[in-house]
Amino acid sequence: MSIIPYSRHWIDEDDIQAVVEVLKSDWLTQGPKIDEFEKALARYCGVKYAVTVSSGTAALHLACLAAGIKEGEEVITTPITFAASANCAVYCGANPVFADIDKDTYNIDLAEIEGKITSRTKAIIPVHFAGLPCDMGEINKIAKQHGLIIIEDACHALGAEYQTNGEWVKIGSCKHSDMAVFSFHPVKHITTGEGGAVLTNNYHLYEKLIVLRTHGITKNAHSFINTREAFSHNGGTLTVNPWYYEMQELGFNYRLTDILCALGLSQLNKLDKFVQKRRTIASRYSEALKKIEYVKTPTEPETKKSAYHLYVVQIDFEKIGKNRTRIMSELRESGVGTQVHYIPVYMQPYYENERNYKKQRCTTAEKYYGKALSIPLYPKMTDDDVTQIINSIRGCLDV
Question: Does domain 272-396 have CATH number 3.90.1150.10?
Fold first, then answer.
């Protein structure tokens, strides 16, 4: 029996042809498709600059480096996220500080952010969990009051929007942040196989991201420091030595290829269709499941439009009389794959043992984790798939 997975990519002939054209071209990497994809992504989100990189994790790391996050500083984020949202601070020698989540949206709690700020706090990394935007206007006010940098972890939220002063704002516009980060992993809204991007309206940050992405090396003559090596007199004219480049700081090889950017461009053309299909499926789920006792469906305030990367239900397993393992097994036997997003990051052995987070407690996050179950959600699902999933859940819960 085939299993409906919790997520799956959508690749069609347009995507395949876009990649084939690059494979037949003169550029497989560091060519024109990178710039084309970056400009298209920036245009879609309504932001000035986009820098593509090899993964969402690489994007988070570079954003922290560009923000100047250093050893001993603190970065506030949520525990209900993938580990990379916290690891990016650790890569820079900083310490993640976990603020509890809101019990309804599962996004980072504003009061918790305020309570976690210390003299060592450098940045806030809010995560738009499952595709639902955080309260970015309020987070921006907190950050400005304390002089903090905001890096949006928007890996779940490409295509999501939120309302501010009556205006709908796309996630990625950086209207209320310094940078926003996306992932193009196959389970995300568009895919490049692996890949990510950092978006910003700040030219200084953009320049830093570009250099850090490529080993800390620049070929921009206006940025050269070692002018004695960079320039020479040619017939009395000062010219740039054509072979010259400078490694000005320790960077990384986090580049994305033209092959993958071609795929990303093709996928971006379908993004609005993908998001709408996700929202339609989520609406069907909510209508069917919200009446089931001991099941809580996701919240979407009127001022937010979720991109629905995930559809997470909260199930009171104790009152139902079946634990999560049994529910997941029964659903799998009926052809439905499920997943749990996420174990609180501070409960991972590395954080508990290596970084001494054993005493960390986020009560709401742990209550959420104890009841969370992600059910399948992706654009390629058919109406019959959705009906099968709903019926399987109802049967499994003896409704």
Answer: yes
